[in-house]
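FAQ: What does a multi-protein file look like?

Like this. Sequence, then tokens, then the next protein.
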Amino acid sequence: MQLVMVTIDCAEPRELARFWTAALRTEVSQDYNGDFVILAPWGGGSVGLGLQRVPEELVGKNRVHLDMHTDDREGEVDRLVGLGATIVDEQKMPGLSWVVLADPAGNVFCVGQQEQ
């Protein structure tokens, strides 16, 4: 068994795909009538991202979120905010700092950077 995709529930998959394709520098690989949109794996990885239409709104914090790392956390956060993300929080622990962001649909994800 292997992990091949993480799926985010949302109201408008095609709209959210515009944010995530730009954020992850990837493209839509499949679109099932706008109800389920699959993004190609990014960064040479093997895990894709699915965006699935659901009727209910997000209530509270999502139980699963994406964690991404970069060597330029500040630059990536600025880029993502420019794409429509919002900053939720900033956290730090020995050796790692990260920013918690929300995508345009309110789904939380993190961008972290190793610290020396």
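And here is the next protein:
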Amino acid sequence: MADSFGSHAPRSPFRAWQAFLWSMQGLKATWALESSFRLEIYLFAVLAPLALWLGADGVERAILVGSMMLVLVIEVLNSAVEAVVDRWGAEHHELAGRAKDMGSAAVFLADLNVLACWGLILLPRYL
């Protein structure tokens, strides 16, 4: 019996490899087109080793690094929303503007999450 999502290729190492290649294409496109993503990658490259050094245990390290990974994930999704909205048309539309603003707000909230995680973990040690 076919699954509820229609006919898909059977699960195989080839399908997993193809999914990996599509993911790499998405990361490459985001890197090439989004300066904010590049900045966040540079910050991650500097702060991730610092997080691994400053975290007292595995949980703290996971929270410090994971909060930054979440920013990258949301930035990629925001870029995807913007690409779809821009593909739809260049003329201003209230819903298109709202979608872009919401994507930007999601990145902002993820940035606040990084500040909260880092602050809650590290500030008590140094105050």
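Q: Is there any per-entry metadata?
A: Some entries carry free-text notes. For the entry above: The chain has a mean pLDDT of 91.
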